[in-house]
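Try this one yourself first.
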């Protein structure tokens, strides 16, 4: 990643300048985490928008008002991005916050707090495909080149937020103890209600069956894709060109099979083994020991 006009480098990680600045990263470093803050942490293209859609209503009794009236980047902002300093102090507690940062780069107040973390993992092959298409439509990112060229960049960590393996490993940290819940994109696709039940239990919260039904229904990929507050249709075309590729593209597992050559598939075998110690199976429903 060499285009300094598009990216700034933070602890070796390339971050898009359109959403990150020296000031936003200073705010990130000095941010005062509250004990009742709830973080959804992901590597890019691993279910962040989905968490921004379901986490706020889970924290406020199933009320869908915020997800129907407030853009996702304001209702559950990225802590490291420029919008954070504008909106976070105005959000009522408990706050839903998202981040793409590695564990070791979180603000010092995070480590002293009791704030909880929901870490969402996704099959890295599907992450690669989704990120490739995102690069094609996001004009604030460098041109991805061919899929094979972009795959090499992804595998070597020359994409925004660095190596997928480094990110996942950093959050598989025993220091977090019972402060973290590991879920997967594929589990959410397979049984969203069950995953939401797990999240509620982890957060010590309850919803009525009717309220949970509303959140589950609203949180389907089909409904998110048509929600202007979540599908990025509010973003000008000269920044994100949805004609080239919609931001919410397919929302499926296994699309990598439509893109990968046998040679690339062989290159990627190490991703699961080295990063996750064979604890996660991505082809079906996954289980991550807590």
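Now uncover the answer:
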């Amino acid at each position: 990643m060499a285009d300094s006009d598009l990216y700034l480098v933070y602890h070796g990680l390339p971050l898009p300048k359109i959403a990150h600045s020296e000031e936003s990263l200073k705010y990130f470093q000095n941010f005062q985490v509250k004990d009742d803050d709830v973080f959804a942490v992901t590597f890019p293209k691993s279910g962040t928008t989905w968490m921004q859609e379901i986490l706020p209503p889970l924290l406020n009794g199933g009320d869908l008002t915020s997800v129907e009236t407030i853009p996702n980047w304001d209702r559950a902002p990225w802590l490291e991005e420029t919008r954070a300093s504008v909106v976070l102090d105005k959000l009522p507690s408990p706050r839903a916050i998202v981040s793409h940062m590695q564990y070791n780069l979180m603000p010092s107040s995070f480590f002293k707090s009791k704030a909880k973390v929901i870490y969402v993992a996704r099959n890295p092959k599907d992450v690669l495909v989704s990120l490739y298409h995102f690069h094609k439509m996001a004009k604030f990112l460098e041109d991805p080149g061919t899929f094979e060229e972009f795959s090499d960049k992804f595998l070597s960590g020359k994409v925004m937020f660095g190596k997928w393996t480094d990110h996942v490993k950093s959050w598989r940290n025993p220091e977090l103890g019972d402060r973290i819940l590991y879920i997967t994109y594929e589990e959410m696709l397979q049984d969203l209600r069950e995953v939401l039940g797990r999240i509620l239990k982890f957060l010590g919260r309850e919803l009525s069956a009717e309220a949970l039904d509303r959140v589950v229904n609203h949180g389907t990929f089909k409904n998110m894709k048509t929600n202007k507050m979540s599908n990025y249709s509010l973003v000008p075309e000269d920044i994100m060109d949805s004609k080239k590729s919609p931001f919410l593209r397919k929302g499926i597992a296994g699309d990598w099979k439509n893109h990968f050559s046998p040679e690339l598939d062989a290159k990627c075998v190490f991703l699961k083994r080295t990063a996750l110690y064979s604890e996660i199976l991505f082809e079906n429903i996954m289980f991550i020991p807590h």
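Discussion: Residues 262-276 form the longest helix (15 residues). Residues 275-290 have pLDDT under 50 and may be disordered.
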